[in-house]
Every structure is written in C-alpha cells, then in structure tokens.
Prior knowledge:
Number of helices: 6
Order of helices and strands: HHHHHH
Shape: elongated
Radius of gyration: 18 Å
Helix content: over 70%
Structural class: mainly alpha
Strand content: under 5%
Amino acid sequence: MVITIISTLVIMLGYFLMLYGAVGFIQDKRLFSSAPKENLAVIPDKKERFKGAHIVGWGIVAIAVLLFIGAFALGIWDGARNGFGPLKYFARFLTMLYGMEIYDILFFDWYLLCRSNFFIYFYPELKSVDRSHFFGYNKKEHIMHFITYIPVCAAMSLGLGAIFS
C-alpha cells in the first residue's frame, strides 16, 4: 500500500510539472485543448517568454513523463517482488489513476483554475474572464477517464499477472 501511495504522489508531481511546463514555458495553445473555451478565446499566441523558454518547458515536460514512467515501473517492480497477481496489480493501477484524476479535479480544476491566480500569472488577459463557473466544465472528460481506466488497468494487470506469475 505504501508503494501505491508513493507512486500516486509521484504521478501527481509529474502531472503538475507537465502543466507547469506547458503553461509557464511552452505556452502553445495547442497544448491547452482541454481548457475552457472562454480562456482559449482571450489567450494570445505568444512567442517565448525569454530565449530558451520552450527548451526549459519541454525539459520540464520530459521530466514529468519520466516521473509517470518511473511511478508505474516502481509499482510493477514492487508487485513482481511481492508476487502480485492480476487482482492486486489492477487495484494498484486503478488506485494510482483514480488518484491522479481526483487530483486533477480538486487541484487543477477547483483550485488552480477557479480559486488561484496560477493561470492569470502567466496570462494576465484572463483577469477579465469570470472563473467562478468553470468548476465542472469538463466533467464529461473526467467521467470518460474514470470509465476508461477500468479496462486499461485490467489489460495491464492481466498482462503483468501472466508475465510475473
């Protein structure tokens, strides 16, 4: 259980770094496809904030991807070491992905988007947008993620259970 919690926290860190790299440094609107339409309408196409900002941003995103891979590798390695079968792998992976999705809903959507000035810091143009109604704007996507994670985790778990048992 401790490894599952650690892996979930590592995924959350990676998820935040991915957002930070994209919003703070890369600043390409194509990466913001899940943002509210009202936000996308006022966000201008920007050049680099400073020379090398895109390189810094892509470096942060690369670290985030490595954290995702590392979190799952840790979960797989620990499961193999402890003789996990498909059911335990399934529970671990589902916990990790559901934890990430809940983090997305509560931290990204509710706090960063609706309550903090995180996005306004990088895009002052967003001050004019009423953010109070944004919470839940992407609930269909979240529901789809919760549903999709079940067969994805099942497939991964059955494959790992077959490999390591």
